# Entry
Amino acid sequence: MKNRIIKISALLICICLLFSGCSSASELFGIESDSIEYKIENGEATVTGVPNKITITSIVIPDEYEGVPVTKIADFASVNLEYATEIKIGKNIKEIGTWAFENNQQLTSFTVDESNETFCSIDGVLFTKDMKTLLFYPLAKDLTDSKDDNGNDIKVSEYSIPDGVETIRTKAFYKCGKITKIVIPDSVKNIEEKVFFRCSALKELTLSQNVEFIGKDAFGFCSAISEINIPSTIKQIDEYAFYNCTSLLTINVDAKESDIKLADKWYPTKNGLAIKDLKINWK
# Structure
């Protein structure tokens, strides 16, 4: 009996060695869990991590886990995913962290259960249920074939934010490096921190004529924008709002400088330094 057990164990080790892609016997036999990671507190579950594996392209946030409702997606719970193309959100989610879905470069859509009372998705983009806040834009949404200035094949996209949206939440388009054109409707009043951070291909930008607030690093590293018009409604622009916007040499502001709360180095800079050819035209 003892010899038989030894032989079986040796056979299992040999099988594991044959499969170089498997780091352990548990992976080989599917014992390793691919499930989402959770934390349970006060009778509710929070999503704290999701699997980043080539075999998992659809992330499904369920309604319940171990008999309790899944109500929150934590900061950094679903970031830097290399393979996920869609994220489906259950009916009980009522809180999503501002860093919950960053830098998922293959993501094409969000889907939200229709009975969710806090969030919704329209054409794959994630909003609050009342459609007043745009939360997250999937970075690979509606990509089309194009050519760059050197004739190389590239993928690009454009997007018009729906009318009625009042706030674009922090990091909504974070590292959306393929989007070339964004139309912001006049309903938008607030563009929060790092909303368009590192949207390096963004060339055409129609700014809301009623915008009041532009947050820190909102357009940081948007190096393709060459001109922007800021309306008379603007009340505050936070520090480094246009950091490293090295092609942005003309800013037209339809307001007096003294009427706006301007933070340190809010204007376009190059690595934080002044751009000699920059022109800011005040009212």
